[in-house]
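### Sample
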Amino acid sequence: MATHNDFGKKAENLAVEHLLRNGYRILSRNFRFQKAEIDIIAEKDDLIIIVEVKARSTDAFMLPQEAVKKSKIKLIVSAADHYLEEYNRDQEVRFDIITVLPDEQKNLVVEHIIHAFDAFDAN
């Protein structure tokens, strides 16, 4: 497996650990629908939380969350709709992004951006 794939998997694992520590229940990982993949589907406070994990080795060019473009959001929303239908879930949905970046000491820092898609119009 390529080094960037290893880093991405490590970032997803850190995101899951972060969510579990904060009272989330993990429902699914790497849920696929057509061309879309949802990294993590979780539940907390009767909400379904759709989580996109973005990791970068540096933020010199852009912040990790800036890599989530409108086209990616549309795919994730479509996959989330399919998940809700397939699993007969009738709950409110929230879309979050968890970023993973190294700090100056090369420690990986997890940031959880709640309601991350609210600023976007996915239509």
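The beta strands are 25-33, 36-44, 47-55, 92-102, 108-113. This sample (UPF0102 protein QE404_003358) is used throughout the tutorial notebook.
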